[in-house]
Amino acid sequence: MSGTGERTTGAVGIDELLERVRSGYRRIGPRDAYEAARTGDALLVDIRYAALRDRDGLVPGAVVVERNELEWRLDPQGSHRVPEATSHDLRAVVICNEGYASSLAAESLHRLGLHRATDLIGGFQAWRAAGLPVLPVSE
């Protein structure tokens, strides 16, 4: 970007970027994500920052990995991976607060070879609105 605020050639806005990213995989709704996790077909990954988790609570069974650590923690070949990240076939369902940052995160996981990665439509707020379980953060 130049100092005058002009867009560089090929630049896109965030809305177009989200549309492009989301066209590369199938997103999942709250009830389907709940069922996939319940049956062991998916790992729920909560990337919300601590203040939001403290304020709103936790998704039961979700692995908490803040966004800035996601790729390191879910890379099956990485030395800092979570124990659940054993295969590129892992179906990770990324959860952010409202379903925007998680789309970009899921696309990043696809670049690492996690071809089944997806994100939760509407994020944590949609999960809660669907009446799905939420645990309070213990103090």
Detailed description of the structure:
- This protein is of the alpha/beta class.
- The chain has one domain: Rhodanese-like domain (Oxidized Rhodanese, domain 1).
- 35% of the residues lie in helices and 9% in strands.
- It has 6 helices and 4 strands; from the N terminus they run H-H-E-H-E-H-E-H-E-H.
- It is globular and about 50 Å long.
Which key phrases capture this entry?
35% helix, 4 strands, globular, Oxidized Rhodanese, domain 1, 4-stranded parallel sheet, 6 helices
Short description:
This protein has 139 residues and is of the alpha/beta class.
SS strand fraction = 5-15%
Mean pLDDT: 94
Low-pLDDT ranges: none
The CATH architecture can be given as 3-Layer(aba) Sandwich
Output the number of helix runs.
Answer: 6
- DSSP, total strands: 4
Percent in helix: 25-40%
Query: How is the main sheet built?
Result: 4 strands, parallel
CA(first)-CA(last) distance: 45 Å
Which class in CATH terms? Alpha Beta
Number of domains: 1
> What do we call the CATH homologous superfamily?
Rhodanese-like domain
* SSE run: HHEHEHEHEH
Kindly name the structural category.
Answer: alpha/beta
Radius of gyration: 16 Å
Rough outline: globular
For the largest sheet, list the strands in their spatial order. Answer: 2-1-3-4
